[in-house]
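Reopening this one. Same input as before:
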Amino acid sequence: MTKIVPTIGRIVYFTLAAWQAEQINKRRDDAARCIDYHRWKSNGAQVHIGNRVEADQVVPAMIVAVWGNTPESAVNLKVILDGTDDYWVTSTSVEDERADGDGNPIHTPGRYHWMPYQIGQAAKHAKSE
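Same output, byte for byte:
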């Protein structure tokens, strides 16, 4: 596969680790318990409301910082959740390519991977050079 150098603003897929899913769900459960207070207070505070997430769930994320200029460089991500909030991931890197016996990709919790479209575009670009 053609290696892609991460850059700010790119959308990638992120695989949630169990502890990250627990953090997100806890924030949302806490907000739900206090929703009447948040509605009454109406002070503009971020209220974490949305659908539950699970370990190993793949979600979109935007690269917001890059620590280097190689394909293996660490990045910070804003994970885009199905709700009013997002989730900040710091200093993660691209997952190693792995597949099961049928050739299906195995995703690594806590790491990101490129979308098929981006992989295809990188391969086209590499051929034209």
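So the earlier flakiness isn't reproducible anymore. For the record, Helices lie at 18-33, 35-41, 116-128.
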